[in-house]
Amino acid sequence: MLGVSYLHYRNQPRLRHLEVYRRRQRQLKDDFVLCLALQVEASLRSDTSEHEISSSQSEVGPDDAFLQPLLVSSRSEAYLDSEPSQRSQVKHRSLLDSPIVQMIEEIKRPLAEDESPARLAYEDEEDSYFFPAFLSHISVRLQSDVPRDTHLKGSIPYPETFTGKDLVDTIQAYLSHLQLQLFFCEVEWGSHQIEDDISDVYMFLGDQDDVRVEPQGLPSGVMPMLTGCYSTCCNDELPCYAYSCPKRKPVGASPTQALASNTDRPAVRHSTSQIVPSRSISSADYQADWADNVPLDLLQALPAAEINRQSIIHKIITQNQQYIQDLNTVESLFIVPLRQADPPIIRPSELEIFIKTVFSTILDVRACTKRVLDALVARQREQAPVINAIGDIFLEAATQFRVTYSHYLGHLPAAEKRVQEEMDSNVMFRVFVQQATRHPDARRLELKHFLSRPSIHLQKSPAVLEAVYKACPKDHPDVEFLKEAVLAIRQVQNTALLCSFQFAMGKGSFAALDWTSFVAEEVLSNMPRREMKRQNIIFELIKGEMEYVKDLESIEIMYVLPLREAMPPIVPSERLAQFCSEVFHNYAELLDAHRDMLRKLHHFQREGHPIVHSITATLYDAILNFRDAYVKYIPNYPIAEYRIDDEMAKNPAFKAFVEQCTRHPDANRLDMKHFVNRPIPRLLRYELLLKSILDETPDNHDDKTTIPLVLEAIKALGWDTERGVFAAKQKVEIWRYHSQIVFKDGEAVDLDLLNTHRALLHTGKALRQPETGFDAWNNWIEVFVLLFDNYMVIARPKEKDGETTYLVDKRASNPLPLDLITPVNFTEPPRQRATNLRNRLRPGERHDPSTSSPDPEADTRVSLVYPCTVHRDGRFGGIYTMFTESAQARTEWKQKLDEAIGLRRVVQDSVKAFEVETLNAETFAATTADPYGYSSPTRDHVHTGEVTCSAPFVTPTGRNLLAIGCAEGVWIGFRHDPTSMRRVLHLKLVTQCMMLEEFGLFLVLADKSLFAYDREAIVPSSFRHARTSRAPQKLSRNRDVHFFSVGKLEQRTVLIYMEKKGASSVFRVLEPIFGRVASEPPTFREYWDFTIPVETYGMAFVNTRVVICSAKGFEIMVAASPKLSNIPVITAREGPQFERLAKRCETCRPLGMFHVNEEEFLLCYNEFGLYVDRHGEPSRSAQVIEWEGTAVHAAWHFPYVLLFNALFIEIRHIETGHLAQIIPGNDIRCICDGRGSRLRSPTTPGDSQELRVQGVMNAPNASAIRTMGNVAQNVFELFPIVST
């Protein structure tokens, strides 16, 4: 108001003096307070006489013209009759007498001692939360209290409307702000100032003839004059320090006077710009316009009803012309400028989508209306001045309106929401809309008004046509057309409302609507009750489908996209994809299938409205289409639920994210698991609704035969998913046990429970007795036994904070692999278990009845327990006994254990990594009397001694031969022909042999001496190349060589052997060289020597490095450098776990080092394996892999590491350490691990297919020689059959 006065001051030459301006400012301040107070008085009415108005205008003066609209709409006789000097007192009295001001004072008044806030809150529950300072509170109260009725304007009845008098009677203040925000409007789309006049008729935009739809949003605004002070120390007794405090008042002034004195700030703030008042066209104007164009004699000859009828028709034409003009304004002021804007107002990539979303089919609506207007104008031109009929035009137009209006009005809420979002985020668009609003063609109306224009026009059409219908004589030919047109357009209204319901997906104000809300009363009154119930159920099914699709969309909007786009990531990026796959699985397939089904249901609903004949075919087709998607999704739900719970327990960021999503408007306070579980009960809901539809379907209807087919399809789908759900629940149960089974530090065993093929076969409680300790016989320990398909775990359950954990003690009951356990005794008689301390006797004591308790039950309380005994092979082997509390439980455990062992054997046979291929089971035998296998030479081919080594090789002629070293020499023959084996070297104590194919040399370590034989001398390729000399080259200096190895260093082939020299190990490096002529055999030259002052056990070439297994660990030598480095590097680590690991590495014997990947190596000791990085430091949190046996030799065949001991071969995956296979045997030894064959490094992943791992074991079941003291030996090769 003060800004207006300043502009007024600048435009008035005679007010340019400063003193005059200040006096004018004070006067405007007082007048504004008075006018605002007079507006809110309930006693004001618009019956002020013209004399009072004119006198008031004369008092105000010519400079007060901008105050006249306020003074005209609110008059006070006391004020007008008073002298100017008495105006201040009259104004203050008027404020004091105002009910609104009294109510404000009552609100701000401090509570008396007997007035408790709790009691006052219940005295008037409706007003307890009403605050008049908020415009939204006033709007709710206004819509709730204003009376609606059918009012006439221009001879046209408008239902569910109210007059200006009704409006002012209900609330007298701030109405213009509600009107500006399009909360209600004038029925003729006028925009003039609200007055206390019964000739003005208004309506709320959400009110229909039979349905009242709540608005999507309330008007916004705050009235500072009615708000409280922001100061916490402000009260009614003492003045506040804030200058703008509503309670601030001069000394001795009343609260009302203080309110009147504090008006220098704007009274209302609102988001909608001020609309310039303009005069609306009344029905008299329409009649005058039509009567002006009619001859007087004809006008006098027409009856009054016909004159009224023609006036209404003329009004219809005029309204449609204005309507077309408004739709043209939409295109000219908004659509075209948005497309032609340079620079663009909206990003070019989003412009067309924005226009399609906001303006939708408004141009199609204009085209349909233009055709109606053209038809009306043509008929007016043909039949002027009296138009005979218009009903046929509107009846024909209703068929076009059904499509265009339904589509447009259905998208209208989304359009308004999109406009508001763009206004909030795009400053350029907000400025563009404001500039368009100030255009003369816009009439100061905003974009929101123009977007709502088709809705208001369609809403008024039936009332206008009804007015024409009522003005027609009963025998008029247009009566029937008008009647049908009214019904058709009302049907268009209902269809449009239905489309709005469909596009809103049943959310918001449409959530409470049912089928009857979209059907006219005439249709409902003529419909059978059973059909009404059937249609209601069909509507409920479609509405439920909309809510279901909306919930599936919410999964993507609320969870999937935010999780994938979050920065920093909520779920670690390396497992985000797997987490989303396991939690949300194939929800996108379900969403696509149900969107398609919903689209078809909506089509049938719109086309058949209000009667939907059948939806069975659509449902049946959809169930067949989404069957596979549900078969995949439903069994995954237990996994999804577990992943959500597990992630929330471990990830605080994810927990906060889920809680935040619960507060999302579309979440309805429901959590993440509700949305993930949503598809499961939906199938059951289909079944219930279809059964209800079937009950209400007539016998002659097609659904009587088709609905049972759909029900059978749904039941079959449930059966197909039931097995998958059971398997998923068991998988989740295994995962829970995976997190609940705990080990002591340094004793963890990877049970491979996260394997997708893992199965839990049986669980139960049992009892165990400690093997040691005082009074061990009576100390019973309760254990929990879990029988998986790979391990049997015996653990002690512990409860803490409501969570159960299962502690596994390696010393008491290490997890038992099913490959290594054998049931021993499940038939032993039961034992007595004392259950009372008084009953427990020390060994050797006798029970004395004289010292027994007077309670006989306490001394005789015993129970029987039933022992179950199994034997385990391996490093932790021995007898394990547990006790069950009943014979039935023991029998069940025996049955389950036999099934588990049998299942394990079948599974291992089907997925085993290696097949044992026998190379020779008839040639080699050793005596049991001599550990070195010496025997009588009477039968040379029988007494070979113990097999110690082998070397497969290929001759230049392509023959695949196999050399086998024994205690009595070296045998060579064809690989798959045992009868071809012949002894070619008569040597003693052969421990290692190898064929150097590139140089044609056969290396043999016999009796701790190293020799090199010419290949042609022992295996001649032909008689022509046979050499007569069989004398070997002796490569070692003395007889103390323990092992040798051949490999590549700096692109040279070298041979390294180790000689024992006291407590040190001397390594000599030799390089084979060819002779000067082809007939001269290759020789060796010394390369260099180096010494390690500890005991060593083996050596291997790993890439460009030499790895030596010593008593200190693994010594690494790079090329020809004499510097050695020792791994693993554990000294830099801290903590008890690393201290124990370092001690264990010192006490255990190293066996080999193998390449895992580009960043890791696996160090194999005789008891465990350890992953290290490229620097030799432990990786994977220093967790070790415990071998099941005590390994003697380690071999490598990618992707497996093979560990040999006397009883079995343990095969593990080198990447994970999981146990892949166990090959049992007797006296098993590795005689060839592939290292050095063809000079390939056996530690490079992917280069192991030519490696051959060979071994030997005793063959008690062979048909070979069975003489006294001899044991047949089975030479075999591990042939890979599964590669992962």
Summed over residues and divided by their number, the pLDDT gives a mean of 77
- Structural category is alpha+beta
Biggest sheet overview: 6 strands, mixed
Could you list the spans in which at least 5 consecutive residues all have pLDDT below 50? 1-80, 111-126, 249-288, 836-860, 929-941, 1240-1249, 1262-1268
Q: In total, how many beta strands?
A: 43
Helical run tally: 37
Strand content: 15-25%
Overall shape: it is elongated
Helix content: 40-55%
End-to-end Cα distance: 83 Å
Radius of gyration: 49 Å
Write up what this structure looks like.
By secondary structure, the chain is α+β, with helices and mostly antiparallel strands. Helices cover 41% and strands 21% of the residues. The strands form ten sheets. Strands 5, 6, 7, 8, 9 and 10 form a six-stranded mixed beta sheet that branches. Strands 15, 16, 41, 42 and 43 form a five-stranded antiparallel beta sheet that branches. A hairpin with a 2-residue loop joins strand 8 and strand 9 (803-808). The protein is elongated, with a radius of gyration of 49 Å. Residues 1-80, 111-126, 249-288, 836-860, 929-941, 1240-1249 and 1262-1268 have low confidence and may be disordered.
Key features of this structure:
disordered N terminus, about 1300 residues, elongated, PH-like_dom_sf, RHO1 GDP-GTP exchange protein 2, about 40% helix, alpha+beta, 6-stranded mixed β-sheet, 5-stranded antiparallel β-sheet, guanine-nucleotide releasing factor, single chain, 37 helices, CNH_dom
